[in-house]
Amino acid sequence: MSRRSYVSVARAEAATEKRERVIQAAARFLREADGITAFSLDAVAKAADVTRLTVYNQFGSRRGLLEAVFDDIARRGQLSRLNDAMAEADPRKGLDLLIAVFCDFWSGDPAVARLHDAMAIDPEFAQGLLERNERRRRSIEELVARIAGKGVPAAARRDAVDLIFALTSCAMFRMLAKARSVSAVRAIITDGARAAIARIKPAKSKPM
Predict the structure, then answer these.
(1) DSSP label at 90?
(2) pLDDT, tens digit (0-9, with 9 covering 90-100), for 9-38
(3) How many CB atoms lie within 10 A of CB 118?
(4) How far is residue 84's CA from residue 112's CA, in Å, rounded to a whole number?
C-alpha cells in the first residue's frame, strides 16, 4: 500500500469513527427525559468531542443528523425484518409478522418514544417521523390489498388500513403497554388487526 493510499484509508476510518460517535451522542440526547429540548448541532458536537463543522460536514444540517439517528435506531431495532413480512407468501402471516416487528421496535429503545413525544414541540422531529410512519402505512396497504384481493371496495380496504395503522402506532403500543407485557400487547393488536381484516375478507369456512 502506498503512503497516499494509507493516508486515505486512515482518514476514511477516522471520519467513519467520528460519524458513529456523533450519531451515538445524538441518540443519547434523545434517550434523556429533557434531552430533546437541548438537541442541537452544537450540543451534539460537544457531547461527541468534535467540532460543529465536523457535524455539519458529515450530516449537512440538524435534519440530516436526525435522519442518520433514525436510521441507526431502525437498524439496531431490526426493522429490516419488515422485508421478511413483505416477502411472506401468505399476507396474513406477513401482517402478523409486521405487528410483531413493530411491537418489538416500540419497546426496544426509549429514544423511539422520546422522538414521538417531541413531535408536538419540534417540526423537524415531526416531519421525520411522519415520513417514516407513512412507510409503515404503505406496507400495511400492500398487505391488506394482497389479503383483500379483487372485489373488495377501495373504501373498505382504506378502513382496514387506517385501523391497522392506528393499532400498530407507537402511541397505541405505549397506551396498551402500561399494564401489559410486550407479548400481551402484541396479541391484542394482532387480534384487532385480524378483526379489521375479517370485516372486509371473512375467513373461508373449512369443509365439513
Answers:
(1) S
(2) 777 788 888 999 999 999 888 887 566 777
(3) 21
(4) 22
CA separation for the pair 166, 196 (Å, rounded): 11
CATH of 77-200, one of 1.10.357, 1.10.3470, 2.60.40, 1.10.1760: 1.10.357
Answer yes or no: are the C-beta atoms of 139 and 98 closer than 8 Å. yes
Q: Alpha-carbon distance 125 to 71, whole Å?
A: 13
123-135 confidence digits (pLDDT tens): 777 777 888 889 9
The grid coordinates of residue 182 equal 410486550
Distances (CA, A) of 110 to 2, 31, 42, 115, 176: 46, 6, 23, 9, 16
| Cell numbers placing 202 | 371473512
List CB contacts of 170: < 8 A, sequence separation 6 or more: 106, 112, 113, 116
- Domains of the chain, residue spans: 3-61, 77-200
Q: Where in 15-148 does DSSP place strands (E)?
A: none
- 8 Å CB contact between 82 and 64: no
Q: What is residue 27's three-state secondary structure?
A: helix
Contact 109, 77 (CB under 8 A): yes
Q: CB under 8 Å to 152, separation ≥6 — which residues?
A: 200, 201
Closest C-alpha among 129, 124, 133, 125 to residue 164: 133
| Domain topology for 3-61 | Arc Repressor Mutant, subunit A (1.10.10)
